[in-house]
Amino acid sequence: MIEILTIETPSLGDRSYLATDGDVAIVVDPQRDLDRVTRLVSERGLRVTHVLETHIHNDYVTGGYALARDLGAEYVVSAHDAVSFERTGVRDGDELRAGAMRIDVLHTPGHTPTHLSYAVHDDQGRPVAVFTGGSMLFGTVGRTDLISPDLTEELARAQYHSVRRLAATLPDEVAVHPTHGFGSHCSATQATKAASTIGAERTDNPALVHTDVDSFVREMVEGLTPYPTYYAQMGPLNATGPSAFDATPPAAMDLAAVVGAVEDGAWVLDLRDRTAYTRSHLLGTINAELRNDLPTYVGWLVPWDAAVVLVGDDEAAITEAQRMLTRIGYDRLAGRSILDPAALDGHPQGATMPRRRFSDLAATSSDERVVLDVRDGWEWESGHHADALHVPFHELPERLGEVPADRPVWVYCATGARASIAVSLLERAGREPVLIDDFCLPGDVPGEEVVDVDVDVEAMAGG
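-> structure tokens emitted (463 positions)
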């Protein structure tokens, strides 16, 4: 019997896997913090023979190279990927053996040109699972615009045929195990269920439901939304064989050192929730709440080569944030500091920030304030406040000049998380921000016109 263990990474919307026959194991698409994998290996007394990559990842730093080296396993990567390390290069039609498991290699281009899927068979030769990476996802597919805009449509067509090949090759009962689809921007859309099989995908996967490739490509490409800017760094980094997660804490800093870091241009990330931040914080810091979307928002906003300092309530918060950021390559942390809000009382750099509701906004007029919507474009297009200016939060540093400076700026998003980042940026730029900390929904603003909005709040990922 083949057992498959799933390792979730909610902060990036991804999954890694360990498949075992009870003695021997393979690992698929491991992330950089390998202790989650090695703990399972040790607890179960397994011998890992192969570490498999479905593709050169765009949304996280792989732990595959380091894990294979540490465990003495073969590192399996497409033979067609240009990498600078030794690997077991495989091609379509190749076969691997790991204990009682047979792994068939399938070329499934689309998410990347060289993308592979791995079909695992038991000791009777029956296919039981397929690891599909960014190809067939749960009710969706991996996006195809991450390599080059010029290749988006070509890869979308390849994706269509790859998903259909998997469905034609494997029986209905085979379990599907994708890497993306659970919040990752590597997905064209998000997963529609928690588990799936080849048979289940026949009913709702767009590549299988659409009867022609043109309609599939048109629908998929038109639905693509922006993806984080840090993605540009991941492919080149993963092609070098990156090191494993280094859990060494960054240097401790006192309050004076943190103030100095702000003055020197470091990105000082205050990990506390926005209630605590608005009550008391250090001027020039950015309120990046410790939530699952922390790495996505930081990777979208903070320059790749910037000095980063983490500020939090306790060491546990800073340790968790360090782990999250290391997964996307932000491991050049300049320092850490435990913040005592009392130390900011009377401090020349101490600050508070107004935090209001939409009902408070209704009592003001447009000549008294600016309303700023920092959600993504698709969210704006689905409905927005009638007076609002639209600047997505990650574009704000470059577009500050578009935000009027003569009035307070009331900022909203979907849940407040991106708005809390935006008000931090505005305050750092010398503006007067106000954080709107509730949802923009029809009827929430009595007496003031609101463009009609049809929003399922629970479906709005992130803040």
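Confidence is low (pLDDT under 50) at residues 439-463.
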